[in-house]
Amino acid sequence: MRDRAKNVVCETCHAPLATLTDPTERVIDEGVTCEACHAIRDVGENAAEPRYTFDLAANRKFGPYCDGKDNYFHRMGCAPWFRDARLCGGCHTFSMPLADGKSLPIINEYAEWRASSFSVSGTACQDCHMPPEVDHAATGSARKVRLGQHGFMGEKGDLVRKALVIVASATTRAGKLVVSVELKNEGAGHAVPSGLPGRQVVVRVQALDEKGRAQAREERTIGRVLVDEAGREVPFYAARAEKIDERIAAGEARTFAFELDAPKAGSLVIDVAWRSMSPALSEALGVPVEERSMGKIEMPFGGHRSGKGREHLPKTVVARP
After folding, report:
1. Residue 259: closest CA among 303, 222, 215, 318
2. Distance separating alpha carbons of residues 7 and 10, to the nearest angstrom
3. Which phi and psi angles does 87 have, rounded to 5°?
């Protein structure tokens, strides 16, 4: 994607040191390293492109603690805003200029966070993506401090599963199963799914018989779609417009309706998954699609009962992270 994008701005976030150091330095090929964050002296805000100021010449490493002592390996810098969301906002804000002079937002998580209740309550990106743990700040350090977990996807890498509350309701109408699935974005301070356009949330509903065989199946997908001049979904670097944005903003909810024909008794399986990209983008890029479960609900239902609907229905189940 970097080669096809032909945009040097990619390097600013994906390989921040590439344009700031000697081309022979091996570190320029290592992407987002410790140095890439802890050499940041300041971050610009409200820009279409990332803006970071680095302090590399002084060999000073910045962090949220202001009582660190210089050591034999590097000097210590004080930057309390390392716990502020603006540290993340420098890279999680990017708009692409278009030929007509306008710009097309590509990465927008920071602006979404600023518009959410998370920002109002003072819950920064790091509070979710880097939950605190108590440990030594460095090998050989004399004391333990509160550190941010550096996996960036939560304590156990399961932050995707914590974004949505799933409310599933099922009843019968005219002999068919009528299913409502509501997704509430209560766990993310930005829209879901977030990140590059093309990522999706998939809602699948299956009616299985008592032996686990499928009787009926439906699915819905939501996400943000960018298109080219012909209206075809394309990777961001080839896009000229936004076709649709069906993502669920922070604090909002989305409801999906399904109607399944399942003559035999069995169970409903409602599965919600995060998808790394749409099938169209997967084909265009030649990259396989990755999926992660965001939650699953199972509800049994009985056979037809004359004038009485089905056993076990209606029913509502709530799945919280």
Report:
1. 215
2. 6
3. -60, -40
Nearest Cα to 224, choosing from 243, 237, 241? 243
Handedness of CA 22, 31, 92, 97 (dihedral sign): positive
Task: Count CB-CB contacts under 10 A for residue 215.
Answer: 16
Residue 206 and residue 219: Cα distance in Å, rounded? 9
pLDDT for 47 = 61
Phi, psi (rounded to 5 degrees) for 13:
-110, -35
Calculate mean pLDDT across residues 217-239: 96
CB 131 within 8 A of CB 117: no
| Residue 170, CA atoms < 13 Å, CB-side half-sphere | 29
Q: How far apart are CA 128 and CA 40, in angstroms?
A: 21
Half-sphere exposure of 95 (CA within 13 A, CB side): 14
Residue 268, beta-bridge partner list:
207, 299
pLDDT (0 to 100) of residue 308: 72
Give the tens place of pLDDT for each residue, 150-170: 888 877 778 899 999 999 999
pTM: 0.89
Q: Which residue has the tokens 């590439």?
A: 18
**Which structural domains are found in the chain, ordered by start?**
2-148 (no CATH), 159-319 (2.60.40)
Q: Which two tokens stand for residue 227?
A: 């298109």
Structure tokens given for 285: 């890029």
Q: How many CB atoms lie within 10 A of CB 75?
A: 14
What is the pLDDT averaged over residues 81-89?
A: 89
Per-residue pLDDT band for 123 (boundaries 50, 70, 90) equals very high
Neighbours of 306 (CB within 10 A): 5
**Closest residue by Cα to residue 45 from 92, 10, 112, 11:** 92
